[in-house]
Amino acid sequence: MAEKMALAKAINESLRRALDTDPKVLIMGEDVGKLGGVFRVTDGLQKDFGESRVIDTPLAESGIVGTAIGLALRGYRPVVEIQFDGFVFPAYDQIVTQLAKMHARSLGKVKLPVVVRIPYGGGIGAVEHHSESPEALFAHVAGLKIVSPSDASDAYWMMQQAIQSDDPVIFFEPKRRYWDKAEVDTEAIPGPLHTARVVRGGTDLTLAAYGPMVKLCQEVAAAAAEEGRSLEVLDLRSVSPIDFDAVQASVERTRRLVVVHEAPVFFGSGAEIAARITERCFYHLEAPVLRVGGYHAPYPPARLEESYLPDLDRVLDAVDRALAY
């Protein structure tokens, strides 16, 4: 049953399957219906399932998420699309003070099975507020699950698992990877949602990444192999919770770790990983944990974004520094 498809198509097929199998699943967002979303991720779903299941909303992110919370309280499973990463902040209050807290506030009696889809990251030459990587802001908030697929297969299955979750899930979609294709087996048995996976084995150093940076790390590992260096690439897949056991197991094999993400390094998710792995693997590490990411500056205009985003040379430089110890 495997089929090669783009990451955006895989999400579309996953949403279609969820709508078809569970009448309580709804999709909401700006232009998700007739237009099919600005990236066409929801293309054709309103046509096939109707305007009461795939709902075009006003341009009001706080209202979209607030409405989804109310629907979830009534037994629905809303999938909300935030059109671009930088547009999520009007809904930040609803997400962190209501969506994330209701389970604890009700002593576990109330569940909020809401998925908030956010296309995120750069690499598409967009204008201001269209290329943010705000995952650390949400990972800091207890009560939210934060995930990001790196390929079409994970996009398909992680979306299924996110929709089935009784806890709210922030689903970060790497927009620069929307058109990357991979084999998707729609009849497979997926692993747990929040487990990391080794996508390339190695012995000299671990590259840990998620979402858009996993492909870059694979390219780095291939380039390093030409110089006789064996790098392991670990796809974290989940930012909250993080599969620290998998990271630890990899670092115990390779004894070095470089964490790569698009978001700024300062107070980024890589800082938490570096601190935890330093505690867990102090006697295994042969070099400090290094981090590669964006700069602590507003996201630049499109013509400068390639200088802002981590690239092969910047990651290889960190690899060289780690291996020099």
From TrEMBL:
SUPFAM superfamilies: Thiamin diphosphate-binding fold (THDP-binding), TK C-terminal domain-like. Its EC number is 1.2.4.4. Pfam families: Transket_pyr, Transketolase_C. Its cofactor is thiamine diphosphate. Residues 5-180 form the Transketolase-like pyrimidine-binding domain. Keywords: Oxidoreductase. SMART domains: Transket_pyr. It comes from the Bacteria. InterPro entries: THDP-binding (IPR029061), Transketo_C/PFOR_II (IPR009014), Transketolase-like_Pyr-bd (IPR005475), Transketolase_C (IPR033248). PANTHER family: 2-OXOISOVALERATE DEHYDROGENASE SUBUNIT BETA, MITOCHONDRIAL, 2-OXOISOVALERATE DEHYDROGENASE SUBUNIT BETA-RELATED. This is 3-methyl-2-oxobutanoate dehydrogenase (2-methylpropanoyl-transferring). The lineage of its organism: Bacteria, Bacillati, Actinomycetota, Actinomycetes, Kitasatosporales.
